[in-house]
Amino acid sequence: MNLTDEKMNVSAKYLDGITIANMARGGAAQLRANAEEVNALNVFPVPDGDTGDNMSMTIEGGISAINGMEETNISTVMDTMARGMLLGARGNSGVILSQFFAGIAKGLSGCDKADVPTLGAALEEGVKKAYASVMKPTEGTILTVAREGVAYAVKNITEESTVVSLFADLIKEMYASLQRTPELLPALKEAEVIDSGGAGLFYIMDGCNRVLNGEDLVADLPTAVATAAPKLDLTKISFGPDSVMEYGYCTECLLQLQNSKVDIEHFDVNVVKDFLQSVGDSIVAFQTDSIVKLHVHTMTPEKVLEFCRQYGEFLTIKIENMSVQHTETETDNTAKKKEKPAKRYGIVAVCTGDGIEELYRELGTDYIIYGGQTQNPSTQDFLNAFEEVSAEHIFVVPNNKNIYMAASQAAEIYTDADVHVIASNNIGSGYIAIAALDHDEEDVEVAAQQMRDAMNGVAAGYVSPSVRDAELNGVQVFKDDYIAFVDKEMVTSRSNKEAAAMDLIDTMLSVPDKFMMTVFFGKDVTDIEKASICAYLEENHPDAEAYYVNGGQDIYPYIFICE
């Protein structure tokens, strides 16, 4: 019986795996349909809103994991979906969403189907896990919408309650809570918007509720969640009938441990690691509850599959010939990795823009993850990056507050190196942190603290076009103006970007003891505009030490880093 083919079984008192899978598909479809609206709920009126996309890709990762499943009990379905969301989580809201679903899955553990009180308790477990995922929970966010919606729904459970009435109460209060978020978070009230993460969660649960009540939203889900392997361009494959298999196969699997085959509670993933070391290299293997994720480069993928089936069944399998042209880059990186022994410290950074990436490489960054605003990498992207770095300790500079949680989630999962996430909020603080790393320092905690200390006092300023009218920090903003802000404080709004940039320069260099400024020019800034900014700095701030980088970044034509 296949989850995607079987007709939903909606019971008044119980919810089963088939139904909840289709409800989740409806939730993903409803959010995807409204993702742009959620993206637009930015406190700052700049074109970098990505909450809707991040949350969509997160839940679609969960949908991808359950596509084609044969199991229909609610526990297995939710656990598998939660794992897919964990690995696909992007942005802080996406990570919180993945933890919310992980808590629900925990609350449904062992259930073939769930009655209303069990569902209520599972939703409460989801709220607890979502709050626990945030170091300093902020009210007026997705957390509040989840907590208040669940509390209201659970409070109203009676002996007469049904699954339908439970979700009706949940949706009713989530919507009301969402409308109250500006009263709890002054930044939202000033910007006259509701919380974007809360809106994303509401659309997901609203879609779940609509499917529960008979609406067909599943057909609206984009094909991007499909699990089919990517198609190859056969005209570009360099492996032919006379080729020699030299590099082997890149083999990746998600293995669902089975109670019928192994004692899951006492299973030691090192058994898998030890075997993989005997048949290949570039090994990653880690266990999250009852699922093992593994990666290996091997000449004999069939042996990997045979060995692993002693302990469970596969949720996904990917095997790629590393000799074909489309994987030559990966092969080169793997060969280099094999030649070099693991060093003490490695660095992974998140950034975008050719000039910025080159600058980070010159500093000694081992692996760059392409990303930033509107391009938040997933937990899986970080795991892939860690895999490529041969080091005992890996320092990660996410360079964005909205990327920090995905990096931290990956750091908790990864076991082949100690991963330390340095909370850099922008490319400037990340740059300073990497430059401060003492590769000769034996104490890793001392080295990490030196990186953190170096970032103190680093300010980042941005110039961006405005996407709507607004009034922030006493500054009146009009759509299509150019706005300038430092961190999250609005500085000015002007009709052209050079004027906004000059106001920003004056503001940032007026702070006592700030005299070093690095200017990153965006990809669309002209030579004339660059010369104008350089001339202004030289004429109006002759004592400042100015450095200029053709960063090539999107969204922001100018980024200023001041220290």
Structural account:
- A hairpin with a 2-residue loop joins strand 14 and strand 15.
- The chain starts with 13 loop residues before the first strand and ends with a strand.
- 45% of the residues lie in helices and 19% in strands.
- The strands form 5 sheets. The protein has a 6-stranded mixed β-sheet with strand order 15-14-11-18-16-17, sandwiched between helices.
- The chain is built from 20 helices and 18 strands.
- It has 4 domains: 211 residues, DhaL domain (Serine Threonine Protein Phosphatase 5, Tetratricopeptide repeat), CATH 1.25.40.340; 74 residues, 2-Layer Sandwich (Alpha-Beta Plaits); 117 residues, Rossmann fold, CATH 3.40.50.510; 104 residues, Hypothetical Protein Tm841, Chain: A,domain 3 (2-Layer Sandwich), CATH 3.30.1180.
- With 563 residues, it is of the alpha+beta class.
Features:
563 residues; alpha+beta; Serine Threonine Protein Phosphatase 5, Tetratricopeptide repeat; Alpha-Beta Plaits; Rossmann fold; 6-stranded mixed β-sheet; 4-stranded antiparallel β-sheet; 18 strands; 19% strand
Instruction: Please identify the top-level CATH class of the largest domain.
Output: Mainly Alpha
Strand line-up of the largest beta sheet:
15-14-11-18-16-17
Global geometry: globular
Binned strand content:
15-25%
Contiguous uncertain segments of 5+ residues: 1-7, 222-236, 325-338
What name goes with the CATH superfamily of the largest domain?
Answer: DhaL domain
Pairing-aware structural class of the strands and helices? Answer: alpha+beta
CATH architecture name of the largest domain:
Alpha Horseshoe
Roughly what is the average pLDDT, rounded to an integer? 86
Structurally, the number of domains stands at: 4
Q: For the report, how would you describe the main beta sheet?
A: 6 strands, mixed
CATH topology of the largest domain: Serine Threonine Protein Phosphatase 5, Tetratricopeptide repeat
Overall helicity = 40-55%
Terminal residue distance: 62 Å
Radius of gyration from the alpha-carbon trace, in angstroms: 25 Å
Number of DSSP helical runs? 20
Q: How many E-type strands? A: 18
